Amino acid sequence: MSEDIHEVAARWHTAQLNDDMDWDGFTAWLEADPRHRLAYDEIALLDARIDDVLPELAQPIEMPSTPARRLPRWAIGSGIAAAAAVAIAVGIGFQTSRPEAPAAREFASAAGSTRTVQVADGVTATLGAGSRLSAAATGASMRLHGSAFFSIRHDPTRSVTVEVGGYRIRDVGTRFTVNAADGVLSLSVEEGKVALQLPGQSTETIISAGQEALARSGAVSLRPVRIASIASWRQGRFVYDQAPLSLVAADIARYTGQPVTIAGSAASRSFSGVLAPGDRAAMVSTLTQLTGLHADSDGQTVRLVDRTGG
């Protein structure tokens, strides 16, 4: 794989730290060539591995009397060669008596498509469009941005956790879907049970099969959910039953790869209905017809507002 592809992958990976990340461009680049996704996954894995061992490198160790050249953490300006140098340092240059930290992996789905990944033995995740997942090699700890459906085989020796939007989900063997945006989380369980911990709280709420949890503003509510409608986007449609409009807008934005926001009190309004996948204009048009919201656009971002100005 050419060095140029890795350089571009590194730039895209670092750009995700910025608020003005060009998700449209990133999606187009991922889809342009299968080698691009492979290069991106390699860069994300390398960066995660460096993060894992940084605390280890900070520990005092005996060094040779001859001054050794300091190997900095890779950066975009230094190119992929620096990344390789640090990979060597992590792998063999700084051996200590402690076991090597397990590598982490990062997965991303493009706009308009889902992606199913084998995170670890018995742990599978299907990413909703425009979502990202980072996971420890063991699959015991994951961090999600967006939406995903998880299938986790029961293993009494293992507890799996998923962090998303400040929320923490603990699972020992189940199938569930989660969607989070703007501080709001929806969690539906198809099989088994999961424990949900809200940001800044130590207690957990148990959600069982056939239940949906809706968490926002430091509170969580439970209600029954139709099993057949859980993660309906896997079957090519978006089915909502009293879903906060903030999550609906986030789904449209991630699916189309174009920004969609919702203003004021309209964000917390509930929506029930079905949206067919399409481009942003078509999905927003359907939503405004069903809700009475008005769509304002500045040429880049669509902003949904209440027709009365809310």
From TrEMBL:
GO molecular function: sigma factor antagonist activity
FecR protein domain ranges (all copies): 108-194
InterPro entries: FecR, Ferrdict_sens_TM
Keyword Lyase assigned: no
Keyword list, A-Z: Membrane, Transmembrane, Transmembrane helix
Keyword Transmembrane helix in annotation: yes
Transmembrane annotation, as ranges: 74-94
PANTHER family (alphabetical): PERIPLASMIC SIGNAL SENSOR AND SIGMA FACTOR ACTIVATOR FECR-RELATED, PROTEIN FECR
UniProt protein name: Transmembrane sensor
Organism in which the protein naturally occurs: Sphingomonas kyeonggiensis
